[in-house]
Every structure is written in C-alpha cells, then in structure tokens.
From TrEMBL:
Transmembrane segments: none annotated. GO terms for molecular function: DNA binding. InterPro entries: Sig_transdc_resp-reg_C-effctor, Tscrpt_reg_LuxR_C, WH-like_DNA-bd_sf. Pfam families: GerE. It comes from the Bacteria. One of its GO terms (biological process) is regulation of DNA-templated transcription. This is Regulatory protein, luxR family. SUPFAM superfamilies: C-terminal effector domain of the bipartite response regulators. SMART domains: HTH_LUXR. Residues 191-256 form the HTH luxR-type domain. It comes from Streptomyces indicus.
Amino acid sequence: MDQRARPEQDFSVFADSVRFPGPGRLRVTEAMTRLEAERLRVVRALEHGQPVAARVLGRGGQEINQNIVRELPSWRTLDSVKPTGSLERLAVSLPHNTYAMQAGLRMTSVWHRDALSPDVRLVLSGEDPEVYFFGYGPLEMKIVDGVEVLLEGPTVRNRTTVVVVRDPACLAAARRYWDAVRATAYPCAAEQLPVDGLTERQRRVVALMLTCSSDEQIARRLGLSVRTVRTEVAVILELLDAPTRFVAGVRVRELLSRITA
C-alpha cells in the first residue's frame, strides 16, 4: 500500500525556520563522539587481528554496494543515517529501496539536511513521509534488525571499507546516536516546491524529473501509464510557464533558491 502523504496532510509544522536548535545538535554531537570512539576501537581491533564482533562487508564502493544488495533481502528493519547524497546516487538507491520495502523491509531513513543540495532535498520531498526524513546526522551508519550496525571500516590498500559490527558497546553507542538523530527529524515532505496548483502526484513527478531521464522511468516509479505521466508533465510545464522540460528544470531551481536554506 502506498503510504505517501495525501494532499490534505500538512507537514509545514515540522519545517521550522530555526532548524535543529542547540540542545538537539548537542545531543547528536555527544552521541556521535561516543560512537566514533567505539568505531575506532573496533577498527583498530580488526587492523591488529584482535578478537572483535565485527566483519568487513566490502572494500571499495562497487564491492560494498554489491554486498549490501546481496544481503538486503535478509534484512527485516533498517534505520539509516545519510550525511550526503547526490541526484545520481538517488536515481539508483531510491528504486532499490522501494523494491526492498515492497518485499517487506521496514525502513526509516534520516538525511543530514545541512549537507544536501536543494535538488536533492526536492527529490526526497516527493518520497514516502513515513520513511524519509530530514534531520541532523553528520555521521553515516545503518542499524540492521536492531542487532548490527554498518560503519566505515579501516582503509585497506587505499580503499574504503564498511564493517558490520555486533560488538555490544558499539551497537549501544549506535542506538544512542540513532535516538539523538531521530529526535531532530521531520518528514522530507515538509519541504515542497512552492508552486500553487500542483497536486501531490504532480509534485512527485516534478521531483522524479530530476532523477529519471524518461517518462517511462517515472511511470514505473509511480505505477502509472506513460500517457498519464505525459499528461501530468504537460500540466507542470504550463504551471511553471516552461516551454520545455529543460526550462522547467531552470524554473524549479529558481524556486528552490527561494526556500530558506
């Protein structure tokens, strides 16, 4: 079942002009400092061949992503903090996440808003408001099924690694960090493009126009016919006073620049 926000839902209450006040940031920073200390302890143990409840998931971006995709079907829950993102990565990761959730994964994803471009924030604003959140989370991590955490590992032959950690102290620190980050979070849907007259579905189409290269791709993501997508795109171009999709993109970026950073 599609759980995205209905048109009558108002998330503006979450998008305060003063984001992530001092106490929330301080709690996150304190929890992050503790988690980083535990992470370094685990990394040193791995580097020196000492016993520790952790394993290397992969070395280098391609291998790490391949191994995550391989293990993903066995995950039941995923709590994720993402400090950065790009349109190119979202074009790949968002469909994968959707397929995983359709297969039964329960996911909550908090994105570090301060480090995201307006384009990325717009794309995320079109995603499920029960899954995708903006918050204050400078350190990346994933807690899987509540029993293990994925963190940056040791550098091996100049390649970044990711480690899967079950060490109790590190996992406890990860949970404290997650709780602190989650307390700052609000639905990405709170930040929508300031264009009057757009329906919820048209806002999703606008967002997907930034990551999908064709109407066919947008149709697959939304479960619509290509004809319906093209009709919606035509309405969007008219509302934006844009003769082409390229000009629409320029208009969108102009509007995004007006949103409070």
